[in-house]
Specification:
single chain, nine-stranded mixed β-sheet, alpha/beta, ten-stranded mixed β-sheet
């Protein structure tokens, strides 16, 4: 290339680079400007009192694992305080109790089997069964109530259950199973021998259904039937069926089901459940199918495949709701919109229950970042998926893992203590203020980009008051609220890096001042 041509090419390149630079700079300035407007300028939320969405059923947590040991080993003070922190009015005021019907992995017969005989195995992950395995001779023995023991089995879990019921706040009990009894499985364990093994033997479908029904009836007769108003009872026989639940890495009770296998067992279970209710005068409901999440996948089974397998049975039309977990979806808006759109188009009559979630990471994160992350998951499940109820995974944990609402620890001297993290308080911004029967309302925000870091939802209570929940994942902001001019007084509850559930009251002026990185719940009264 001669010098003249080289100079000409250089000038052309420079002009092109200049144009690109101008475009990039313009986009950057516009983006920064839009972000500044969204993040720092006054924002507006509009609540539509005429746009009624789903009716709230409540909030809960699971009694699995640590709760069973707490009932056996905790001090009286720790037992009393933990129940108040979870189900009491001064605590989270949870109204949904999730009771784990174990598969018998805690039986002595499995002590010498892997993984239970390994020193590293967490014994809390083993679960007792009410069925007395020593009386087993044939599969029909699972259908005989005389082979069950409710007086000495699972007593730690039952004690915590009774204490929680005594608060008077439990309105719904979900009895859930992670695995069939090990005597019904292909592997002889409460996990599969291979990855994605359908571990429930087909000839045991009826026995597993009876196992659940007899276990639930036994607990119901002893703990629920005598209450002035017995809680609603649901039975959830299947848990996260699409996950592997088998092989050397399976360390807790779990059972994989392919979609058609799940549907065939669910048909047996629902048929026997309906017959049980007719014979015993009970109103137990079936809860299906606790999908591991509601993400859509290509190349593997997802929530759609299981629902399409279930819908071929007549009883599916009478199933009031679909239960799912939020794992994998995390705080994604996109996954929730896809799932919500799919349900409204294909199953518009079905409600949604979000029955399990935790932040699956090592450690305990006592930060507003972690708290607001949980708040976003709850709020987006309520506002986008329009879930009627929402439950966290472990009510109590004692490990160094981010899966507990309350943590129970024992120091070297044997002293026991309870502690909570910021997410406990953020969850309370929902569970303490929303009651069964409250109705979600439509709401919009002027921040169409979502850059302001706001999540919000509104609800009307039976007395006409309105609950407004706002999560601010960013700098302090001034927020104008429209549609609520008829309200006169406001009760504020704030959690931020410096305070937990700090309350105040004032006349309602249609404006909220949001502290940085905060959760704010406002109860508005006429």
């Amino acid at each position: 290339m001669n010098r003249t041509a080289w100079m000409r090419a250089l000038r052309a390149t420079a002009k092109y680079a200049l144009r690109v630079g101008i475009v990039v700079a313009t986009v950057a300035v516009l983006s920064i400007g839009m972000y500044a407007i969204a993040a720092y300028c006054p924002l507006r939320i509009g609540v539509d009192l005429t746009d009624e969405r789903q009716t709230v059923a409540g909030f809960g947590a699971s009694s699995a694992w640590t709760f069973q040991r707490m009932g056996r080993d905790a001090t009286e003070q720790v037992k009393r305080d933990s129940v108040e922190m979870l189900y009491g009015q001064s605590g989270l005021a949870l109204n949904i109790y999730r009771y784990n019907i174990g598969g018998g992995s805690a039986d002595a017969a499995l002590d010498a089997r892997e993984p239970y005989n390994q020193a590293w195995f967490d014994a809390d992950r083993r679960a007792e069964s009410f069925f007395v395995a020593e009386r087993y001779g044939q599969m029909s023995d699972f259908s005989d109530p005389n082979n069950y023991d409710f007086e000495t089995r699972d007593q730690g879990a039952l004690e915590m259950f009774a204490r929680s019921l005594a608060t008077g706040n439990v309105e719904q009990v979900v009895f859930f199973a992670n695995s069939p009894h090990y005597l019904m499985t292909q592997s002889g364990l409460c996990t599969g021998a291979q990855v994605q093994q359908n571990n429930l033997r087909p000839e045991c479908y009826e026995a597993f259904a009876d196992y659940l029904l007899i276990s639930v009836q036994g607990i119901y007769d002893r703990y629920l039937a005598h209450l002035p108003v017995a809680p609603q009872v649901s039975i959830s026989p299947i848990n996260e069926p699409q996950w592997d639940w088998g092989g050397p890495d399976a360390t807790q009770e779990g059972c994989h089901y392919d979609p058609q296998e799940l549907a065939r067992f669910a048909d047996v279970f629902m048929t026997r459940l309906q017959a049980w209710n007719r014979a015993h005068g009970t109103t137990f409901e079936g809860d299906l199918f606790e999908s591991g999440n509601y993400k859509f996948y290509s190349g593997r089974d997802d929530v759609r495949d299981y629902l399409q397998a279930l819908e071929s049975y007549d009883w599916f039309r009478s199933l009031r709701s679909v239960s799912v977990h939020a794992y994998g979806a995390e705080d994604s808006v996109g996954h929730r919109r896809k799932f919500a759109d799919y349900l409204r188009k294909r199953y518009p009559e079905k409600k949604v229950s979000v029955t399990e979630f935790c932040e699956m990471e090592e450690g305990r994160f006592d930060t507003m970042r972690s708290g607001l992350f949980l708040g976003k998951v709850i709020n987006r499940d309520l506002s986008i998926v329009q879930a009627t109820d929402w439950s966290w995974w472990l009510a109590v944990s004692s490990g160094d893992y981010n899966d507990g609402l309350v943590y129970w620890d024992t120091d070297a001297a044997g002293n026991q203590k309870l502690s909570v993290l910021k997410r406990y308080y953020v969850m309370g911004h929902f569970s303490k203020f929303l009651d069964r029967g409250d109705v979600a309302l439509g709401a919009t925000c002027s921040d169409l980009t979502g850059w302001a870091g706001l999540d919000y939802s509104a609800y009307r209570k039976a007395d006409g008051s309105v609950v407004l929940i706002v999560l601010n994942d960013g700098c302090a902001k001034s927020l104008r609220v429209g549609g609520l001019d008829a309200y006169a007084t406001a009760q504020y509850t704030v959690t931020d890096p410096t305070c937990n559930w700090q309350t105040s009251e004032s006349a309602w002026q249609g404006r909220l001042e949001l502290p940085a990185h905060s959760a704010v719940t406002v109860v508005l009264s006429p």
